[in-house]
Each structure stands twice: as C-alpha cells, then as structure tokens.
Design brief:
Elements (H helix, E strand, L loop, with lengths): L3 H13 L6 H8 L6 H5 L9 H9 L4 H6 L10 H6 L3 E3 L2 E3 L6 E12 L11 E8 L5 H4 L2 E7 L12 E5 L9 E7 L2 E9 L4 E5 L8 E4 L5 E11 L5
Parallel strand pairs: 3-5
Antiparallel strand pairs: 1-2, 2-3, 3-4, 5-6, 6-11, 7-8, 7-11, 8-9, 9-10
Length: 237
C-alpha cells in the first residue's frame, strides 16, 4: 500500500513545526533516499515501514494506521480515543489494538535468519514490535507469528538482504510448499521447501546460483521452525 499522499502531508506538517526545513532534511529524518523521494510521492515506490523506520514514526508520534491507510489523524496526540481506549495489549506472542483498529503489532527478534549459507543463528531476544495491517495476516495466525531479519542473497529475487519476514510457528510442519525458516544442524535458514511423495524434502534457493538439496524428511539434523507468511522489503526497486 503506497503512502505518497501521507508522506507529502507529513512533510508539510513537520515543516510548519520547524522540525525540518527542506526536503533533504525530511529525507534524512525518514531514512529516504533523496533521489527516490519524488517517486515515493507519486506512489511509484512504497515507503518501507521496517523496524528502523517504525521507530522514527514512533518518535514523531505518528499514528501508524493513518500513515498506512490514510485514515484517522496524523498524530497520536490528535486522537483522544486512541490514547484513552486503545493502548496496545499483549496477547501471547503479539500485540494488537482493539478490534476497531486495523493494525496488529508483532514481536521483532534481534537475530537474523540466513538466506545464504547459514552462518548466523536466531537470537531469541525481543527488541520491539512491528505494525502489520490485519488484512496481511489471518487473525488465527497472529498469536504464533513473529518478525525477523533476513541476511544473504540466496532467496533473491523473492527476499533481499536485510528484508524482514513474518514467520508463523504453528505452520512448522507439512503445511504445503512454501518458504520456511528451518534449522539445519546449528544454522537457521530461510528457504523454499518442496515436500515430495517419497518422504523427502527439496530445499530450494530462489537464487539460481545456489544448488537444490534433497534430504529425508526424517532427519534429526533438520527442523522446520516456522512457515513464512509474509515479508517486508527493505530493498528499493
């Protein structure tokens, strides 16, 4: 969902408050490549609301629902109802607003999963929350979902280095071909998995430079941790 109109309105509001003076100041504040700014305003590119940019919006007191959908007030301080009645409430593995809101907050973990050779393992520390529109994820999946960063290039052009994936631990078995977070020996990887009729798995990297691997499903060195049910690109096209 594009945010060109919201970005333009926010620039004018911050300029009126003397928080920024120029478009370059605004781009620096919002982690925007200045060369891409005009394309963002024309909705030719999407502003990536990754955890870093989410923290920027939080510090500016921006209403995330307004920024994503264009609905409601620009600033949280403009919303008495939100301040009084819809503070985030923790539910198991996720944070969500009341049923009248359109945003779910998922936990972000500090580690990474490798889309390469698996040198980096998952760290279980939760470092914050990340907003996701409810329509992007089934409500029944939210409580078992989390967000973690991808490292490496083996899943390009589907996933790029430093993208964020939404993993669901309830879908950690044979729930159809798709992209999964897996543990292979002591490494955590994000790969496309194909379940074969002969009780084997084909581990596929979307990047053609990497070879496929076929392994038995019953292998103590392989564990399917979570299915990837969505992702957020940090990569600018």
């Amino acid at each position: 969902m594009a945010q060109g109109k919201q970005l333009e309105e926010l620039f004018e509001a911050l300029k009126n408050e003397n928080i920024v003076k120029t478009k370059q100041d605004y781009c620096n504040l919002m982690n925007i490549d200045y060369k891409s700014f005009s394309r963002l305003l024309r909705d030719e590119l999407n502003y990536q609301i990754n955890p870093t940019n989410f923290e920027v919006l939080k510090k500016l007191d921006i209403n995330i629902e307004w920024f994503i959908t264009g609905q409601g007030s620009m600033f949280n301080s403009d919303q008495t109802e939100m301040i009084i009645g819809t503070r985030p409430t923790k539910h198991n593995n996720h944070f969500e607003y009341t049923k009248n809101d359109n945003v779910i907050y998922l936990n972000v973990y500090s580690g990474t999963v490798s889309a390469g050779h698996g040198e980096i393992a998952i760290d279980s520390e939760i470092i914050g929350q990340f907003p996701v529109i409810k329509e992007m994820i089934d409500s029944c999946l939210a409580e078992k979902s989390f967000i973690i960063k991808v490292k490496g290039d083996s899943m390009t052009p589907t996933l790029y280095n430093n993208d964020y994936v939404i993993g669901n631990t309830e879908l950690n078995h044979t729930s159809g071909e798709g992209i999964y977070i897996i543990r292979m020996y002591d490494n955590f990887l994000v790969k496309r998995i194909q379940f074969n009729f002969d009780n084997t798995l084909t581990i596929i990297s979307d990047n053609a430079r990497y070879e496929r691997q076929i392994i038995p499903i019953q292998n103590e060195n392989i564990q399917i941790v979570a299915k990837v049910v969505g992702w957020v690109h940090k990569h600018l096209y």
